[in-house]
């Protein structure tokens, strides 16, 4: 996890009108503050700003990942109050482009984390830090096939349709399954990143598909709701369930066998490296245009290993 995979191409810092010598705020704006995953991003961002006297860091996000308009407002407000830099996890690849463009026009460097912007926004930010979500989806799919074989039905419990991370993560999971097995995919179902919604959806899916052999919960609140539904249905251990992200609830599900594994991103690294990238840009330094913050698959067998403990939260 410590080793970063970066592209060879480097991008130059903006001509920031003397920003390097001006103290100011770095705004970290995530998809929602109501998630342990994003709070772990906050911890990383806080670690990055410690000891930096000339800049402060703020952390904000809407009440839910589906509150896209609220996130747009947060970015626009940050631009209007003249922050020195922005670290942004966009909830919608298209909707955030105009706000990021405003930051670019105001000569405010933007570093994108977790989910990408749409193609028409690629010129308005300076670096992108993320899990390779397609590779992560393929990793989970390979684990699913190894557990259930190449026949049967597997349900996909997703979160917000069209979000950059979801497109890669779920899309490549489904593609890897269909190309390498005869497994039938049920879904995907979209929880809007609401645990209660995922619980109810999973309860319905389990009831309607008694022959289900596997199920995948594609982000933290979705996987938690999925896991709780599996336990309530009395199917823990009898169906292969795989999650995504690594908070204490999901760790407990792995340890007690409700989940056969959960894929964990480097959320702390997203916050830490995102703020560090903005600081470098403000100092006129170059940063990689892409930094892969990695993913590991936590299972009952390896959950206590240093590699996995390093990314759990």
Would you kindly provide a written description of the structure presented here, covering whatever features stand out?
InterPro entries: Peripla_BP_I (IPR028082), SBP_2_dom (IPR025997). With 313 residues, the chain is of the alpha/beta class. It folds into two domains: 5-131 and 266-293, Response regulator (Rossmann fold); 133-264, Response regulator (Rossmann fold, 3-Layer(aba) Sandwich), CATH 3.40.50.2300. The protein is 40% helix and 21% strand. The strands form three sheets. Strands 1-14-7-6-5-3-4 form a seven-stranded mixed β-sheet, sandwiched between helices. A six-stranded mixed β-sheet has the order 9-8-10-11-12-15, sandwiched between helices. α2 (68-80) runs parallel beside α3 (97-105), α4 runs parallel beside α5 and α6 (195-208) packs across α7 (220-232).
Tally of individual domains: 2
- N to C succession of SSEs: EEEHEHEHEEHEHEHEHEHEHEEEH
Q: What is the CATH homology-level superfamily of the largest domain?
A: Response regulator
Low-confidence stretches: 1-21
Q: Would you identify the CATH architecture of the largest domain? A: 3-Layer(aba) Sandwich
Strand residue percentage: 15-25%
Radius of gyration: 20 Å
> Into which percent range does the helicity of residues fall?
25-40%
Number of helices: 10
Oligomer: single chain
Keywords: Signal
Family: Belongs to the bacterial solute-binding protein 2 family.
Signal peptide: 1-23
Protein name: ABC transporter substrate-binding protein
């Amino acid at each position: 996890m410590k080793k970063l995979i970066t592209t060879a191409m480097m991008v130059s810092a903006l001509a920031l009108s003397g920003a390097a010598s001006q103290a100011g705020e770095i705004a970290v704006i995530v998809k929602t503050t109501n998630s342990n995953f994003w709070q772990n991003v906050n911890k990383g961002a806080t670690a990055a700003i410690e000891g930096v006297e000339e800049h402060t860091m703020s952390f904000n996000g809407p009440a839910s990942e589906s509150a896209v308009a609220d996130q747009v407002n947060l970015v626009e407000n940050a631009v209007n109050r003249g922050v020195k830099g922005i670290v942004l996890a966009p909830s919608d690849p298209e909707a955030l482009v105009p706000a990021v463009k405003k930051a670019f026009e105001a000569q405010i460097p933007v570093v994108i984390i977790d989910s990408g912007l749409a193609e028409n926004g690629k010129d308005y930010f300076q670096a992108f830090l993320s899990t390779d979500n397609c590779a992560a989806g393929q990793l989970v799919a390979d684990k699913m096939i190894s557990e259930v074989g190449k026949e049967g039905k597997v349900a996909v419990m997703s979160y917000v349709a069209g979000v950059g991370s979801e497109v890669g993560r779920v899309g490549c999971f489904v593609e890897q399954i269909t190309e390498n097995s005869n497994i039938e995919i049920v879904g995907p179902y979209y929880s809007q990143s609401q645990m209660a919604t995922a619980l109810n959806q999973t309860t319905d899916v389990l009831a309607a598909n008694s022959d289900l052999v596997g199920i995948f919960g594609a982000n933290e609140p979705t996987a938690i709701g999925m896991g709780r539904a599996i336990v309530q249905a009395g199917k823990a251990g009898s169906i292969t369930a795989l999650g995504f992200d690594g908070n204490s609830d999901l760790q407990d599900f792995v340890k007690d066998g409700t989940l056969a594994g959960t894929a964990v991103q480097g959320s702390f690294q997203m916050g830490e490296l995102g703020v560090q990238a903005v600081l470098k840009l403000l100092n006129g330094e170059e940063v990689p245009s892409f930094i892969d913050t990695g993913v590991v698959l936590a299972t009952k067998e390896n959950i206590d290993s240093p590699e996995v403990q390093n990314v759990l939260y």
